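(Fold this chain)
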Amino acid sequence: MHQYPQRQRPDDRPRPPYPQYEDQPPRQAPQGYPPAAEQRGRQAYPDAHAQQPPPPPGHEAYEHPYEHPAGPPCPDPSAHIRPRPAGAAYDSDSEPPRKRSRRAMWISATLALVLLLGGGFAAWKLEWFSGNGETVSFGKDQASGKGSGGDGAGAQGAAKPSGDPDVQMPTGPKAEFKQTAKLDDGTIVAKTTLVGAKSGFTGDVWVWAPKQYDDPKYAKSGFPVLIALPGGEGYPTNYWADRSLGLHKAISDGVQAGTSLPYVVIMPVLNPDNKYYYDGSDIPGQPKMGTWMAEDVPNFAKANFRTYKSRDGWAFMGSSSGAFVGMKTVLQHPDKFKAVIASGGEIVPDSPLWKGHQAEMDANNPEKLAKKLIDSNGPEVYINFQIGTKEGGKDRMVKFQQQYGKGPVKTTIRDIQNGEHNGWHYVRGMKEGSLEWISKVLKAPKPEAG
């Protein structure tokens, strides 16, 4: 039995999208939302629309019977109406013209407005999803001009590396990517399936590259890589791939403002299933998720993108259980990764699968890894904790900082005002300073002169 008690993990689902209020706390979910999802773990993107309750007694919907303008309806409504010859003028003995009630006019006007707005919204959403499912590639072939959003025929290896020996051109083999989302600036989120050569695990990976990646000025430059990890079980999807959370836009906006580097974002599944959480580790007898995260995913990025050979171009970000995995991996492999943005307060391993494997669990404990790094005066690593002021867990961050935030382990804690335990608020924290913080310790791409 390991020494860390099990904790019930907080709700790691991204909140339903409210784009017009994306920097405000999300609306309170309906009571009981949704009970089935709570029991089966943090599934990504649950239906946010609860069934409407029935009306209270005495307020059931009803319809008014039609009342003829001339009086109550008779058994045969046409009996008192004389047919009018075609083209004849109206007279008092023929049927009086039916006037539209004010209520009907309001209903018609409202319906027209809804249809108009709905059509516009549908067109807007259609642009979001335009091209989804199509094969895309990243990195333009400068001779053909094909690349992101194209037909996948772009030759990434056409450019030669710059004079920087740290630049790593794509090594291949090239993966086949299918578009899953398109941002307003034309950049694309795409998905592929990665067969982990070293871990033996096969899982989905989503990727996003900034506009600068296809800019000819950067054709010979490496790009920093940010591996983004979700909370909860993180399977079968990675919610950071959803454009509505705003991660990719936050990076693009930060690049324009000069507060962020243009990262290539890699978004793998966190776990091999949604039955357990595996702490991103090689737990004996289980899929080797530690090897998947520290070896297979970075090698996949090197195979498909222009990156850096040194650790100066590699970092993690994650929320809740994903924050733990990112921090643990950086401390475990400081020769490969330099920094992490860890949101949500997870510090120590607590998978139920560690039972009977104390030594292996200790080898994946950030507290013990940090102490080992301090004692060996290892390479510097940078940990930026993020915590919402409306969630728990800051005490664990403060304790870690006090005990292990020294020597080569550089730590900082960012409070997100009115922040809760969700991806919306963690992205807000990144925009408010964490992206700028991590960008100062990582290597920037270098454009060619002219």
Remarks:
- Confidence is low (pLDDT under 50) at residues 1-11, 15-97, 120-127, 141-157.
